[in-house]
Amino acid sequence: MDYRVGVGAGWRHRSPMTKTSVRSRTKRIGISVAIIVLVLDIITKWWAVQRLSDGSAIDLVGSLRFYLVYNRGMAFSAGTNLGPLIGLLAIVVIVILVRNLNKVDTLLSLIATGLIIGGATGNVVDRIFRGDGFMTGAVIDFIDLQWWPVFNIADIGIVFGAIAMAISLIFFPAPTEEADTHAD
Q1: Selection from 155, 80, 96 nearest residue 120 by Cα
Q2: pTM score, two decimals?
Q3: H or E segment at 118?
Q4: Any idea where the domains of the chain sit in the sequence?
Q5: First CA to last CA across the chain, in angstroms?
Q6: pLDDT in tens, the chain (184 residues)
Q7: Coil, strand, or helix at residue 9?
Q8: Which of 15, 47, 51, 115 has the greatest CB tally within 10 Å of its CB?
C-alpha cells in the first residue's frame, strides 16, 4: 500500500488537482500540526508561570508532577551559557524544515516534521521573549517526572517528532528514482 502523500504512483488518478496544489495542501498539514503544538506549548507555559511561580509543585500520579524550572541551556540543562547559539541553530533547523515540507512524501513524516517545527518554535519563542538580551531567555519547563529532566510540550513535540521521523525513514523509505521510473 502506498502511504505517500500527493506524490508518486497514482497521485494523478486520485484527484484532478495539480501537483502544485497537492503539495500546497500537504504543506498545510505539516504547518497545522506545528501550529497546534506551538499553541499548546504557549498556553501550558503561560499556565505554568501563572500557577507555579511561587515554587509550589502539583503532584499528579506517581512521580509525575508539575514544577516550574527555567532552563537557560539545552536538553538536560546542558550548555547553560550557549542560549543564543542554541536559539540560532534552532531557527536554522526550523527554516530548513519549513522550506522542505513540500518534499515530504509520507503522512507520518509530515506529522513528524510538523511536531519538530512546532516544538522547536515554542522553545525559540521562550529564548526570544523571556530574556533581557538577544536569545538570552530561559525556556519554561514544568513537566517533572522526578527521575528525568523537567520538560515541556515543545520538548514532547520534538522527541515524538524525531521518533516518528525515524520510524518513517526506516519503515516507509522514499522511493528511488529507479522505482518511480518502473511505476510509469
Answers
A1: 155
A2: 0.81
A3: helix 107-129
A4: 20-170
A5: 17
A6: 454 554 444 443 444 445 565 566 778 999 999 999 999 999 999 999 999 999 999 999 999 999 999 988 776 666 677 778 888 999 999 999 999 998 888 899 999 999 999 999 999 999 999 888 778 889 999 999 999 999 999 999 999 999 999 999 999 887 766 555 555 5
A7: coil
A8: 115
The CA distance from 184 to 178, in Å, is 11
Cell numbers given for 126: 521562550
Report how many helices (DSSP H) and strands (DSSP E) the chain contains, helices first: 6, 3
Judge contact between 110 and 5, C-beta under 8 A. Answer: yes
CA dist., res. 31 & res. 110, Å (int): 9
Provide the grid cell at 153. Answer: 510540550
DSSP state at residue 129: H
Q: How many Cβ atoms are within 10 Å of 152's Cβ, its own excluded?
A: 24
- Give the CA angle between residues 165, 34, 122 to the nearest 5°: 105
